[in-house]
Design goal:
Number of strands: 13
Strand order of the largest sheet: 3-4-2-5-6-1-7
Largest sheet: 7 strands, parallel
Distance between the termini: 111 Å
Mean pLDDT: 81
Number of helices: 31
Radius of gyration: 31 Å
Shape: globular
Low-confidence stretches: 678-692
Strand content: 5-15%
Structural class: alpha/beta
Length: 723
């Protein structure tokens, strides 16, 4: 019996220690929140309470008595205020009630984040406690109920059974006591087989060892936090629910739909990941709606939401799932599936495609293939459709005439559950968004008004609520550090000016866009000079940099010039020719490198699917023709898991195509913000349809030729002028 009592005491101690650690974390966060609220209340003049309650309160009497702020009134309380000259019980009660309501409002809206490099409740103390919890929770969670049942049962039985362990003492006991003792001893003996079968003694030993391990040093802790910030915040969210996302986890969905989705039971038994509140809601949205589009802003973890939906279905007995994605993120998908869930990923791509396909068909799991590879996945009636079809970067299938769109549409038509993922459902105009919605819920789009121009942005979002969910970074990630975007305007050098004029004369938009960065002598490039300054400053500040450009020759030149800078370690380049697995290897090495590391990438190749939170400085060498492409690239860095403020430098030249593009593309950004940035519903308004890229190119070239005094527009102007 002694061994079982010792084991039960150990189990109880472990449960108590972990519970104490959890309460310690909650106390630190709540204390920090209270301190934040008190600081804000201390800055609010007590006279402003009139704005929230009766205007005839005798608040000036409070001021005269030294109660200057709302915090003063709250701390004083009703009795003390009532005792002040000229105040009275009504003013005292009402003022305190108004102060309490204001405090509650501020507290509910307080947005807190861990502050890297600091001590205190939001610094090293909190990270240390979360680090300990992160080590012990995965071991404890599966056994917690067993430990609780065992320890409580033994605690109740052991005192009753104690007389039976001593012959002399037992002989002197009353018959009823002896009977209870024998019965309790027998019940304790029954635990022996259970202990052996569950392996609980070994679990207790592992848990005791983990709890006894000393915490790493501060430097190691902060490095671990930088690498796994998303995991730390996910764990924190389970302890202090709704710390930052509040109702924004619901996008702009109607209340009745939110209520139904929130009530949907999500089975997380096959998940390894701790879901954030908004992520769990996204998985429920996908499952409840059956056919849906999650359009969360880049960096919010759309992949893990899809994996959570698959894990839920797998726990219910479903066996086969299919993910279709660009080749650039195929490796990332296979990694994420195995990292976040007890599901087997099959890479249906490359030399081993057929073997992986047969394995998936035979044993189930998650088949991951590319848009091009989808044609090799059988879709005949002899094969049952997957339980869930996931299409990542779904904006790739926005064109109904494209072959890959038709292939995905065919699969979507025969698959009961379909989930589209994209952070940019609308790249150029709102017709792209309705094209995606049509593949998911055609009856919804068909029911929309025929005269699309009659729909404004708010009605557009509301109409697509049953199919479209979007949350934005600033709404749900309380921990996300700020993003500062700087437009670095440079003046063309004489050599750059000559190269630019030659490109304009040739009517070559692409040459115009990169003229400055491809001058014969790199020392004559104003943009390149600024880029090297930014990289050197980042190195000196202990930061890492990602450089994006649309053009391969620009990328090649940047890599060459970085090699001449002391203390700079260039990684890449990542271009469209680099295989997906190789891209991830490059990112992994960059992430493991120290300050001064620079990752150089084409914006299309590195701006989709790869996570580069190790960097905190982004340089875009030229404005992109589609604003969403630029945002996607920045989203590779400014995303969940980022712990540093992100600096974005957009390199621009005065009196050039950069100015024209900035003016024209402002409209595209406005369309996206109005129709797709907020989640609710989607149809299209013809008045919001933007110009195509081809039209944009013609417009910009003609405008620049006219500005410089030649070209058809200039000739027409001169003819009209009579010269």
């Amino acid at each position: 019996m002694t061994r079982r009592v010792t084991a039960a005491d150990t189990a109880a101690r472990i449960l108590a220690d972990v519970d104490s650690l959890r309460r310690h974390v909650v106390a630190m966060v709540e204390g920090a929140r209270d301190e934040r609220v008190r600081g804000e209340l201390a800055g609010i003049d007590v006279l402003r309470l009139r704005e929230t309650t009766e205007r005839n309160l005798r608040l000036q009497a409070l001021v005269d008595a030294g109660i200057a702020t709302v915090l003063d009134a709250l701390d004083a309380g009703t009795a003390r205020l009532d005792a002040l000259p000229g105040v009275g019980p009504h003013t005292a009660r009402t003022a305190v009630a108004a102060a309490e309501r204001l405090a509650q409002t501020l507290r509910a809206g307080a947005r807190l984040r861990i502050e890297p490099g600091t001590r205190g409740p939001l610094g090293l103390d909190l990270v240390t406690a979360l680090h300990r919890l992160a080590r012990v929770e995965p071991l404890l969670a599966p056994e917690a109920q067993h430990l609780a049942d065992f320890s409580s049962s033994v605690a109740a039985l052991a005192p009753v059974a104690a007389p039976a362990t001593s012959r002399l003492g037992f002989a002197l006991r009353l018959p009823s006591t002896k009977a209870r003792a024998r019965q309790s001893l027998a019940r304790l003996a029954d635990w022996e087989a259970w202990l052996a079968g569950t392996g609980l003694p070994a679990t207790l030993e592992r848990l005791t060892g983990v709890l006894a391990e000393p915490a790493p040093g501060p430097l190691a802790l902060w490095q671990d936090f930088e690498r796994r910030a998303a995991d730390y915040y996910a764990l924190l969210d389970t302890l202090v629910p709704g710390l930052g996302d509040h109702t924004t986890r619901y996008g702009a969905l109607p209340a009745e739909l939110v209520e139904r989705i929130t009530a949907y039971p999500l089975d997380e038994s096959l998940l390894h990941a701790n879901l954030r509140g908004y992520q769990a809601f996204g998985a429920r949205f996908a499952l409840n709606q059956g056919r849906a589009l999650i359009g969360d802003e880049m960096g919010l973890g759309k992949t893990v939401q899809a994996i959570a939906a698959m894990a839920h279905l797998a726990a219910a007995g479903e066996t086969h799932f299919l993910v279709v994605c660009p080749a650039s993120v195929l490796v990332n998908w296979t990694r994420e599936v195995s990292t976040h869930a007890r599901l087997v990923a099959h890479r249906v791509h490359g030399a081993d495609r057929d073997t992986a396909l047969r394995s998936w068909q035979r044993s189930g799991g998650v088949a991951v293939t590319t848009f091009q590879g989808l044609q090799h996945v059988p879709s005949s009636a002899t094969h049952a459709p997957p339980a869930l079809l996931v299409v990542d970067e779904a904006h790739y299938v926005k064109n109904p005439q494209a072959g890959r769109t038709q292939a995905v549409a065919a699969w979507a038509a025969r698959t009961p559950r379909v989930l589209f993922l994209t952070g940019t459902p609308l790249l150029n105009d709102v017709t792209e968004m309705t094209a995606l919605a049509t593949m998911l819920q055609p009856e919804l789009v068909a029911a929309l008004p025929g005269h699309l121009r009659l729909l404004g942005a708010e009605d557009f979002r509301h109409a697509l609520a049953p199919v479209y969910l979007r949350r934005n970074l600033e709404d749900v990630l309380v921990e996300l550090p700020p993003r500062l975007t700087v437009d670095d305007w440079e003046e063309l050098t004489p050599a750059g000016e000559r190269a630019y004029r030659d490109a304009v004369a040739a009517g070559n938009l692409m040459a115009m866009r990169r003229a400055d960065l491809t001058v014969p002598d790199p020392r004559d490039s104003a943009k390149l000079d600024r880029l090297l300054e930014i990289v050197a400053e980042a190195r000196d500040g202990g930061q890492r940099v990602v450089v994006f450009s649309f053009f391969r020759d620009v990328i090649a030149r940047v890599v060459d010039e970085l090699g001449a800078l002391p203390g700079i370690e260039a990684h890449g380049p990542i271009t469209g020719d680099v295989p997906a697995a190789r891209r991830q290897d490059i990112v992994d090495r960059f992430s493991a490198a120290g300050p001064g590391a620079v990752l150089v990438s084409q914006v299309q190749a590195g701006g989709v699917g790869l996570n580069v939170q190790a960097a905190s400085v982004v340089v875009l060498t030229e404005p992109q023709l589609v604003p969403a492409v630029e945002e996607q690239a920045i989203g590779r860095v400014h995303r969940m898991g980022q712990v540093r403020p992100v600096q974005v430098h957009r390199l621009l030249t005065e009196d050039s195509v950069d100015e024209r593009l900035e003016e024209l593309l402002a409209g595209k950004r406005a369309v996206f913000d109005a129709y797709a940035r907020e989640s609710s519903l989607a149809q299209q308004a013809e008045s919001a349809v933007d110009v195509s890229e081809a039209e944009l190119a013609r417009h910009v070239v003609a405008a620049e030729q006219a500005r410089l005094g030649y070209g058809p527009v200039w000739d027409e102007l001169m003819a009209d002028d009579g010269t």
